[in-house]
UniProtKB/TrEMBL annotation:
Pfam families: Methyltransf_23. PANTHER family: TRANS-ACONITATE 2-METHYLTRANSFERASE, TRANS-ACONITATE 2-METHYLTRANSFERASE-RELATED. The keyword 4Fe-4S does not apply. The keyword Transferase applies. InterPro entries: SAM-dependent_MTases_sf, Trans_acon_MeTrfase_C. One of its GO terms (biological process) is methylation. GO terms for molecular function: trans-aconitate 2-methyltransferase activity. It comes from Nocardia amamiensis. Its EC number is 2.1.1.144. This is Trans-aconitate 2-methyltransferase. Keywords: Methyltransferase, Transferase.
Amino acid sequence: MWDPQQYLTFGDHRSRPFFDLLARIGATEPRSVVDLGCGPGHLTSALAQRWPGARVQALDSSPDMVAAARERGVEASLGAVQDWEPGGDTDVVVCNAVLHWVPEHPALLRQWMRQLPTGAWLAIQVPANFDAPSHRAIHQVAARGEWLDRLGQAGILEPQAVLDPAGYADVLAASGGAVDAWETTYLQRLSGDNPVLGWVAGTALRPVRDVLDDAEWREFTAQLAPLLRTAYPRRADGTTWLPFRRVFAVAQKQ
Ligand SMILES: C[S@@+](CC[C@H](N)C(=O)[O-])C[C@H]1O[C@@H](n2cnc3c(N)ncnc32)[C@H](O)[C@@H]1O
């Protein structure tokens, strides 16, 4: 399950790519704006501030996230992006840090581009750090005999498919979009004892947490902790640097 509190712990690091994405959307007076996979809704509120005349709606597949978004006053519904379709007045779609959980998302992007009204904007961002030392360490532990069966069956060892900027540009341009795609590696400054473990606990390890009971989870993270400490050493001043690559694509339907 997604945990709104743990997610918001790293709020600044997670918000910056959202605003970098938003900056490339040229819509001026959209009728309807949709935030797909809205999380706790703190960023959805920024969409309402940017376009005060628009109806801003949000969707998330986690009941806890939908509840947290509603508490912020966001018009949020429970649902999967796979089942969502744009309406005739959907002028902006934002999907930030969600589609890496949806392997079939290139087909969804094609479908949404076909269905969106002319002039509408579709903006996505996906983490693209699946070859990073943090993910290699998770896979190394998950592949150990004691975990392999259960985590392998839960799909944790399968590669998560995200495209590079040119891949998204191809998909969106072929579906009728004028495309702007790019990538950025953010160097995130973390502090505390083994903060990369805390970071991945709220993201990449979520499917692991879903499968293990409390005692197993403690054991799994205890095995992972030293690998992450070695891969991301703490500097003398207490800083741990975490490079994080993200891929962005914004398309306007022609
Ligand atoms: C990393 S969070 C991103 C939240 C928000 N977009 C942000 O930028 O802060 C991913 C969110 O996507 C949601 N999610 C994951 N798979 C989903 C799906 N198939 N359909 C809808 N929401 C999904 C999760 O529940 C979670 O709230």
